[in-house]
Specification:
With about 55 residues, this protein is mainly β. It has strands at about 10-15, 20-25, 30-35, 40-45. The protein is built from no helices and 4 strands.
Length: about 55
């Protein structure tokens, strides 16, 4: 993962639209949504643990 080199925790969750990649860094959940075209948008949110992506 591009921005998760020093992540404490990392997980990938598959769904119908692509992959949710969640990274815990310093107590902040950083969420990326990667579509089939490999473009990702990032969000920092406590909702990340629930797999929610806010664009």
């Amino acid at each position: 993962m591009k921005n998760g080199g020093n992540a404490d925790t990392e997980w990938i969750r598959a769904n119908g639209k692509g992959l949710y990649v969640g990274v815990m860094q310093g107590g902040v959940v950083k969420i990326s949504f990667c579509g089939h075209n490999s473009t990702c948008s990032r969000d920092t949110s406590t909702d990340g643990a629930k797999g929610k992506v806010i664009k």
